[in-house]
Amino acid sequence: MKLKIAVLEGDGIGPEIMKQGVAVMDAIAAKFGHEFEYTPAICGAHAIEEVGDPYPDSTHEVCMQADAVLFAAVGSLKFDNDPTAKIRPETGLLAMRKKLGLFANVRPVATFDCLLHKSPLKEELLKGADFVVIRELTGGMYFGAKYQDNDQAYDTNIYTRPEVERILKVGFEMAMTRKKHLTVVDKANVLASSRLWRQIAKEMESQYPEVTTDYMFIDNASMRVLTEPRYFDVIVTENTFGDILTDETSCITGSMGLQPSSSLGEHTPLFEPVHGSWPQAAGQNLANPIAQILSAAMLLEHFGLNEEGALIRKAVTASLDANVRTPEIQVEGGEKYGTTEVGEWIVNYIKN
Ligand code: GGG
């Protein structure tokens, strides 16, 4: 298969983890006879510094021409430490999602047996936990009207019926391919927008009679994903709740560095780690490349390359089982591996 891939490494640890993601894609291409053509493009803080825009038109053009976008992360301390900054790297990511119409962010949460003890949670609660969070990605507070002066600030959590219907459809259909259990997470006791979500979900239930649908307040869901993760199959939720909930799920997997995602919608699909750019670690060979590598696996699976995706997953699990791990999940007293070494180990596993 021939695929044109836009490669957006972004900021912080982005370039390091992307290098390993692309190396894995190359190893897959060589093994299975595929042709992956990469086009790099700038975004985030780098793009602000170079052209004054975190998602310039030139990058959008590259993304639109590609079959898929492989993205790493954006964000930089310079902007984090300057609350008055008018343009921020993160707005580039939001612009990209909006312009590409990527309204459905699919975030799988699965455990690795050898890492269960790394979680602050009880091992027996975690074993076999395997669910997907579908985060609405182009609406809600992140995109609603905002205002800020010295005395007052607001964000608007706005959702329209078509926006809610299309993301709930993704949730119901994803549930149909899995254990047929959908949990709609909201705050319908307080938020009008959540009540609209709940109303529309209830209307749609009859179209999916095989799916067991339940409703949970975000407060309760935040506890239940940690105390009873096996309860969940597919969670569908709004932009803000999904963002926070899937950072929380790193307590289940054992590290933020293990969680990949895909973003799907109207134009080119995008694949990126859930985590951000960890600027403090940039250039230090510390970051876990696995979320990026598993995002590459999701990219391949999106195009039906399931055997290829499965081989990447097998290689990742083998690396963790062999204790080839970055510092945050390293075995106590064990050998230290950096971003490069973990990536190279996985590439070699794929080649052999
Ligand atoms: N790879 C994800 C990333 O770069 N995250 C930084 C960020 O801007 N996060 C906000 C969000 O994902 O909505």
How is this structure best described in words?
- Its EC number is 1.1.1.85.
- It comes from Xylanibacter ruminicola (strain ATCC 19189 / DSM 19721 / CIP 105475 / JCM 8958 / 23).
- The chain is of the alpha/beta class.
- The protein has 2 domains: 1-104 and 260-352, Isopropylmalate Dehydrogenase (3-Layer(aba) Sandwich); 120-253, Isopropylmalate Dehydrogenase.
- It contains 14 helices and 12 strands.
- The strands form 2 sheets. It has a 10-stranded mixed sheet with strand order 2-1-3-12-11-4-5-10-8-9, with helices on both faces.
- A hairpin with a 5-residue loop joins β11 (260-264) and β12.
- α13 crosses α14.
- The mean pLDDT is 95.
- The structure holds glycylglycylglycine.
Task: Write a concise keyword list for the protein shown above.
magnesium; Isopropylmalate Dehydrogenase; manganese; binds glycylglycylglycine; branched-chain amino acid biosynthesis; 42% helix; NAD; 352 residues
Name the quaternary structure: single chain
Distance between the termini: 21 Å
Strand order of the largest sheet: 2-1-3-12-11-4-5-10-8-9
CATH class type of the largest domain: Alpha Beta
Strand pairing plus helix content: what structural class? alpha/beta
Stated plainly, the CATH topology of the largest domain is called Isopropylmalate Dehydrogenase
What is the CATH H-level superfamily of the largest domain? Isopropylmalate Dehydrogenase
**Main sheet summary:** 10 strands, mixed
The residue fraction in helices comes out at 40-55%
Summarize the structure.
Pfam families: Iso_dh. The chain is an alpha/beta fold and 352 residues long.
